[in-house]
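Recall from the previous lesson that a structure prediction takes nothing but the amino acid sequence as input. Here we apply that procedure to Putative nucleotidyltransferase with HDIG domain from Desulfosoma caldarium. The sequence below is the only information supplied.
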Amino acid sequence: MIVPSGDMAVCRRAHEVLEAYLGTCVGVALWDREAGVGGLFHALLAEPLMSGSVPAEPLRYASTGLPLFLEALEEKGAKPSRLEAAVAGGAIVGPGHDVHLDLQIGARTLERVELFLKATRIPVVLSETGGTFTCCLRLHCHNWTPEIIPVGTHFFRPEGPPNHCRPSRESLEKAIKDVKPIPQTAFKILALLRSETYQMGEISREIRLDQVLAAKVLALCNSPVYGAPEKIDSLDRALVFLGEKRILQMALQVFLSGVFPSRVGGYSLCKGGLFQHAVSTALGAEFIARRLGMPQGKAYTYGLLHDIGKIVLDQLVAESAPLFYRKALHGDRPLKDIEKELFGMDHTQVGALLVQHWNLPADMADVISGHHRSNLNGEHATPQDVALITVADFITNRFLAGSQLERLDPRPVIPALRRCGLSSEVLEKMIADMPLGLMRQQASGF
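The prediction returns the following C-alpha cells.
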C-alpha cells in the first residue's frame, strides 16, 4: 500500500507492506511490536506558515500530522513507550550549494520530525535522510521490519556488457521519427487549449470525429476521480459537468497516453510513470499559472510535453543498462548530464527536436529545451514561460516522487523562482495549497 504525501496509514500485524516515495517530503514509520500495531506517515511540509493556525489538512504538516499519527496508533493499542521509528526523506535540493539554502524545505521538515521524536522519546532505529535522490521507506507489517532503499535499485543489475556504444546522431534522429505520431485531431485540441478562445460546440465536434477518443473521454468522466453524481452518457453532458477546458485536457491526455511508454523500466519507476509525471507537471503548471495570472492553457500544454524527449531516450536505456542505472543512482550528477554522456544529447534537446518534427509551435520547443537551464531566455517563448515549467517540474519531482527516474540540476530553480516573482515562503505556501492528491489521482487514471 502506497501512502501518498499528506497522509498516513495505520494497521495491525498483517501481510501488508506500507510504502512512501520520498523526495523532499519526510516519511516516518512507527510500530509497537508487542501490540502488533504500526503505521507510516508521509509529511509534505514542516508546519503551517501561519504559526498557531489550525490547517484544513493537518496531515500535510509534520507539526500537526505527527500528533494525529501517534493518536491513531494509540487508539489501536500502541503505547508510546514501546514505539520504534524509522525516518527517511528530506532530500536537499542540491549537493551543498549555498545559493540553495532558502530552498531546503526538506531539512526544515526533517528538523520538525526529529524534535517530535525526541520530545516523545521514541527511538529511531533506522534513518536515511538528506541526500539528493528519491528513496522509498517501507514497513513490512508482518514482522515490523523497516526498509529504506533508493528508487530504481530494482532495475539495477551489476552484470552486463562492460562497453557502451554512444548512438550516432543519425540513430537518434531515426528514433525521433519512429515515435508514434500524434493524430491531426490532437493538434487541433492542443491549439484550442493554447488559444483559450474555444466554443463548446467546436470542442464537441472535434472529439466526436474520433469515436475511440469520445469513448475514452466519457470513461474518464465517469471514473471516481471526478465524482459525477450520476452516469455521464454524452459529450454534451460531460462538457456541462466538467467544463470545456477540462474536457480538452482529457482529450489531449488520451492521445498522449498512447505515445508515452506504459511499461515499467527505462525512466518509469511504475507502470506509466513517465506519463504520470507529465500529467502531474501539467496540472501543477496550470495551478501556478492561475496564481501568477499567466495563460493556463499554454502552461498546461507546456507541462504535458516538457519531458517528451524521454520517450525517445527511453528506447535507448535498455541498451545502456546497467551503466545508465549505475550512473543515475550513484553520485550527484544531474540526470541530463548522464544522458548527454551516454546518448550524445539530453532529453531536453531530443524533446525540442521531436516537437519540431511534429511541427508544433516554436515556443514549445523553447520551453522543452530550456526548462533545465539557468539561462531562461528563449527565441520564441518568454522567460516566464520557461521559468514556470522549471518550477512546476521541481515541485512534482520533489513532492510527487516515485513515478520516474530523475535527478534534477538545482541551479536553474532559484533564477526561475525569481523570474516568476516567487520567494521561498511563497513557494511553500503554493505547495501547501496545491491539490496534490487530486493531481496524483488524475495522473494515474489512465
